[in-house]
Amino acid sequence: MRALVLQSYGGREAMALTDVPAPTAGAGEVLIRTRAVGLNPVDAMHREGDFKAIAPDDFPTVAGNELSGIVETVGA
């Protein structure tokens, strides 16, 4: 799957559109085939490290938290 991946805190150079392994749905989870995503100012603040004091990241990490899609799988 393709994802916008943050390699570190920083500017636009800290992110890249990358192929990553597709996730699987665990117990009580759903896997959504994403059709559209949104990036907003909070995503830019996240990339720049504005929240690292309260919510540090383990890099690399996939950016974004808004999406629309189709439920592909329901975990057992």
Which terms summarize this structure?
single chain; 76 residues; mainly beta; Quinone Oxidoreductase, Chain A, domain 1; three-stranded antiparallel beta sheet; two-stranded antiparallel ribbon; 9% helix; 39% strand
Order of helices and strands: EEEHEE
Q: Work out the helicity level.
A: under 10%
How many DSSP E strands?
A: 5
For the report, how would you describe the main beta sheet?
A: 3 strands, antiparallel
Beta strand %: 35-45%
CATH topology: Quinone Oxidoreductase, Chain A, domain 1
Rg, please? 14 Å
Low-confidence stretches: none
Q: What class do helices, strands and sheet pairing give?
A: mainly beta
Mean pLDDT level: 93
Query: What's the arrangement of strands in the largest beta sheet?
Result: 2-1-4
User: What is the general shape?
Assistant: globular
Task: Determine the number of helices (DSSP H or I, runs of at least 4 residues).
Answer: 1
Corresponding CATH superfamily: Medium-chain alcohol dehydrogenases, catalytic domain
CATH architecture assignment name: Alpha-Beta Complex
